[in-house]
Amino acid sequence: MDNRTHGFRQFECLKPVILRSLGRNKILILRRVRGNSFCSMTKMLIEMSENLGIPLSTLKSNARELRRMELVEFGGVEARLTDRGVVVLGIVGESFGSDYDNIALSGGENEK
Description:
The protein is mainly alpha-helical. It contains 5 helices and 2 strands, in the order H-H-H-E-E-H-H. The protein has a single domain, classed as Winged helix-like DNA-binding domain superfamily/Winged helix DNA-binding domain (Arc Repressor Mutant, subunit A, Orthogonal Bundle). The longest helix has 20 residues.
């Protein structure tokens, strides 16, 4: 885990807002970028599309939105989280499955 993601417990109350605002696909992309090992965004998105069954066009759109929000940087050889992206993942934490399923997916998740 990235050492920059520790120490965000005081912002735990923002977790439901972030999960709903970003949505499942963007959170998945952020997590994949965090674990990136010198891989381009395109390659990561292709792998995610194949492994998760999410249309590549959807993932590309979500990645562009993350870049506009200044949560990720890409366009060269390597995709990476910005400091802002690290903070967002620090708040969301590792309990993606149960918390995300209960909060964000229950009712009205709007994904592109």
